[in-house]
Amino acid sequence: MFRRWVGGIVGALDGVLAVDGKTLRGSAYGDAPPVHMVSAFSTELGLVLGQEKVAGKSNEITAIPELLEALHIKGLLVSIDAMGCQREIAARIVRAHWAIENRLHWMLNVCFGEDDCMIRKDRAPQNLSLLKKIVLNLIRADKTDTAKTSLRLKRKRAARDDDIRMKMLGNHPL
Fold first, then answer.
1. 132-152 residue pLDDT tens
2. Residue 105 DSSP code
3. Phi and psi angles of residue 153, each rounded to the nearest 5 degrees, phi first
């Protein structure tokens, strides 16, 4: 559903698709390790296009092909961090790949407190991760709120003001 919803917002894609994983640190519980999610991020648009949970006792290398298979990536430049290539090759590619680190992972940690989140039960960590990315996409894609403020403040304004929130939601098919 998320991928279909994003497709309705962005239509045909162009440019760089950065793929990277992030551990939801607070999702560890007892002997269970934390959930690890791999995200596909349009560096041009600043929008999350999809995510895939890394299977337990596995790593990103198994989740990345599943995520890419679910997306329409023909004609896009796909960048992957050192997990998917050697250091020398990575040095010659993509400064655009860092957009996923700076514009997605950093935002999830700083604005949404994702690493501090202690949600652990069942599918809740990955569902909450997806909801945070939906909110981030809605805020970034919104053109109705013209205030020159940070995304964190826009998120807070939308949380407190029904009119702002409804304008954001009203502009996008759910």
1. 999 898 888 888 777 788 888
2. I
3. -70, -35
